[in-house]
Amino acid sequence: MTAAKSHSLADDAAALLAKLGLPFDRHHGTLKARSPITGEIIAEIAETSPEAARDAIVRAHGAFLIWRNVPAPKRGELVRLFGEELRENKAALGRLVSIEAGKIVSEGTGEVQEMIDICDFAVGLSRQLYGLTIATERPEHRMMETWHPLGVTGIISAFNFPVAVWSWNAALALVCGNSIVWKPSEKTPLTALATQALFERAMRRFADDGGTTPVGLSAVLIGGRALGELLVDHPKVPLVSATGSTAMGRAVAPRLAQRFARAILELGGNNAAIVCPSADLDLTLRGVAFAAMGTAGQRCTTLRRLFLHDSIYDKFLPRLKSAYASVTIGNPLDTGTLVGPLIDRSAFDTMQTMLAKAKAGGATVTGGERVDIGGWGDAYYVRPALAEIAMQTDLVKHETFAPLLWVMRYSDFETALDLHNAVPQGLASSIFTSDLREAELFLSARGSDCGIANVNIGPSGAEIGGAFGGEKDTGGGRESGSDSWKAYMRRATNTINYGRTLPLAQGVKFDVG
Predict the structure, then answer these.
(1) 184, 290, 405, 413: least surrounded by Cβ within 10 Å?
(2) What is the gyration radius of the CA atoms in the chain, in angstroms?
(3) Is the pLDDT of residue 251 over 80?
(4) pLDDT for 426-465, tens place per residue?
(5) Which residues are annotated as catalytic?
């Protein structure tokens, strides 16, 4: 894309929004939506007032009271229709993600594919919300557990996955019988509004087929932190799933706990990979390069620490440096680009501050400089950086949300494993090895302490079949696949006496009359 064409990004976004069912005057509000591709303002959007946000939550609660009575497979039918809308509009929504979040085209459309995948998962789940039948010590009794809808699910999402993470929560919450209220990042409001428009299109189709579509089943709140706080504090929201920084989680968790609401927290990650002597170095190079540089280092699962064994350090690191030096940085809408821009100047400044500290701390830094793309002075493209450092200092233990990879040498596997776990965060991890013992130890109880532990791939958790989340400062939450649906429901234990006597548990006697 040339500099002249860059001025059409706002028009491009407006056309995509119209195609996705959301034609609107892009100059009718106070929230400025910028594209990190050029730094230009692509829309000015009306923000949700606190009063309107409270009204939306009250409507969502009313919708929940109706939606919870719709049979779960019928709820799954709505999610199926939404998945169809996503399939038909994958290219358009994916391009909008690229424009607003700065992702390369394949990552933008890949994010929409994640949405489609979780819809498929949730549709199947709608017929599998199983409870248990439990053995009871009392004769002529049956004991079981049942699962019921919980209520309004609040979703707070981040800019780096502006629609996929919402869908992980929304698809499961909906089939579980809940309504949803979404506060997207103020950096990516357009993709949220477009997604809501597609969902409303699915709701109309569902209603045309005779389905129940209560008003307020899904709502979007556009604005900043105050709206997130309102959602966290509202007594009609029993569950909030929040994705963001550890600092955000430390603010959210106590407020939810104060009113005994539930939290699903997806917070910081300081993800590492251990490269062992037996590793396939060709495979490792590809895995490390994507994990560390993809999405311009702005994924929660981005590789941020790399432990290289002595025997392969001097062989592998030059190859990695070559990949860093040659990776294509540019407009993410252009074919061939692999690394797009940072989201904004704040992200760039944070990265530069950390690089200066790294150098001051004795690290050898390669890359990290700003790259001029298209003459766009308000866009922030950088060369991904490698920081070779002798030991894991406190600086290394701090997550920098940018393409900065710390590289360290190790000689003893157990020591490397200890260093791997010696950070506050516990999201994702990986090991590259052909040694079965090393791989199995890494996956064992005394191995990686992360919620995601991989072998011979990077620290990614991209497939929706597995629950996504981590431990320690990552928050402990789980979203997406496996049995994560249970977080969106309430459990009831039921005991049924079908006899004519009343035996009590534990041999208790209490005879009256």
Answers:
(1) 290
(2) 25
(3) yes
(4) 999 999 999 999 999 999 999 999 999 999 999 987 789 9
(5) 266, 300
d(Cα 247, Cα 400) in Å, to the nearest integer? 13
d(CA 329, CA 326): 9
| CB-CB contact of 10 with 41 (8 Å) | yes
- For 105, 164, 339, the CA distances from 115, given in Å and listed in that order, are 16, 5, 23
Q: CA–CA separation, 9 vs 43, rounded Å? A: 10
Pairing of strands 31-34, 303-309: unpaired
Residue 470 phi, psi (nearest 5): -150, 180
Secondary structure of residue 244 in the 3-state scheme = coil
- What DSSP character marks residue 339? B
Note the pLDDT tens digit of each residue in 329-359.
999 999 999 999 999 999 999 999 999 999 9
| Alpha-carbon span 512 to 374, nearest angstrom | 88
Query: In whole angstroms, what separates CA 110 from the centre of its chain?
Result: 13
Whether this prediction's pTM lies above 0.90 is answered by yes
Structure token pair of residue 148: 């019921």
Residue 232 CB contacts under 8 Å (≥ 6 apart), including other chains: 154, 156, 240, 242, 252, 255, 256, 261
The stretches of 274-338 forming alpha helices (DSSP H) are: 281-293, 310-326
DSSP state of 505: G
Position 1 scores a pLDDT of 42
> What is the rounded distance in angstroms from the CA atom of residue 263 to the CA atom of residue 476?
9
What percent of the chain stands above pLDDT 90?
95
- C-alpha span between 354 and 350 (Å, rounded): 6
Say how far residue 77 (Cα) sits from the centre of its chain.
Answer: 24
Pairing between β-strand 141-149 and β-strand 489-497 as defined by DSSP bridges:
antiparallel
How is residue 246 written in tokens?
């550890």
